[in-house]
Design a protein that fits this description.
alpha+beta, endopeptidase fold (from Nostoc punctiforme), 6-stranded antiparallel β-sheet, 5-stranded mixed β-sheet, 11 strands, 23% helix, elongated
């Protein structure tokens, strides 16, 4: 990274300390510049949320080629959320520890494993692992519906699965086959709020080893606060099932 950009990031981090600063690296013609943004997170000392209006203003000036934020009183080591968001944005992320001053860059790999991915709500969660499976196994791109914290506990926000599945190309079936989406109720709720992929007796996943053997049947899912995993589909999971959905293009 160019020296004048590093200096601008350091200046921004110092001005915002002890809050996390955030900003964008822009390509403006042949030049590059740092565009500082506002951190509108509820707890800016612990995380950052880049102001969408600032992002739009930056795009009016040039091409966004990197995302920047600081780690106040911490190392530049990326968090699980940093790694997940780097993949989601498909852009390099530059992390500055402050006041230490260490700058680290992480780059997207282009493919997050389906198994053992850390949980980051809205980025790597139960719906994300479903979307990624359909794209990798079937070439089907599902809409990426916005998920706000706590939607799974509110009847008003239960539309992610119950109200959107038809528009996303799914239809309800009586018994599952490999590749179907299993929609369940977990926790203290009165509506479906969790989903996984039914794999039948074959735990194989596109492009990776599952390391799981046995009679099955298996379901791939990503439960809140846990890494994504394979489970045997039976017992309480079967009892929690409320919808079995099959995509029309998967027939």
């Amino acid at each position: 990274m160019r020296k004048h950009i590093i200096a601008a990031i350091q200046s921004h981090a110092a001005a915002e300390y002890p809050k996390e600063c955030c900003g964008l690296v822009l390509a403006v013609g042949l030049a590059q510049k740092y565009f500082p943004c506002r951190n509108i997170a509820t707890e800016p000392n612990e995380e950052f949320r880049l102001d969408p209006e600032d992002y739009a203003a930056a795009e009016d000036q040039g091409q966004v080629i990197g995302i920047v934020h600081s780690h106040p009183d911490a190392t530049s080591r990326p968090s699980s959320r940093d790694l997940a968001m780097c993949e989601a944005t498909a852009l390099p992320w530059h992390i500055l520890s402050w006041p230490e001053g260490d700058l680290r860059t992480i780059t997207p790999t282009g493919s997050t494993p389906l198994l053992k991915r850390p949980f980051v709500h809205g980025v790597q969660d139960c719906f994300a692992v479903v979307r990624d499976f359909y794209m990798r196994a079937m070439g089907i791109e599902l809409p990426n519906y916005q998920r706000t914290d706590g939607w799974w506990e509110s009847a008003e926000n239960a539309s992610l699965y119950e109200q959107h599945y038809k528009a996303a190309g799914f239809e309800q079936v009586d018994s599952p086959q490999r590749g179907d989406m299993i929609v369940m109720e977990v926790g203290r709720t009165a509506h479906p709020n969790h989903a996984g992929i039914y794999l039948g007796t074959d735990p194989a996943l596109p492009g990776e080893e599952s390391g799981v053997f046995g009679p099955g049947p298996f379901v791939l899912h990503h439960l809140y606060g846990r890494p994504s995993e394979l489970i045997v589909y039976g017992g309480p999971w079967l009892q929690r099932t409320r919808l079995i959905l099959r995509h029309k293009e998967a027939r």
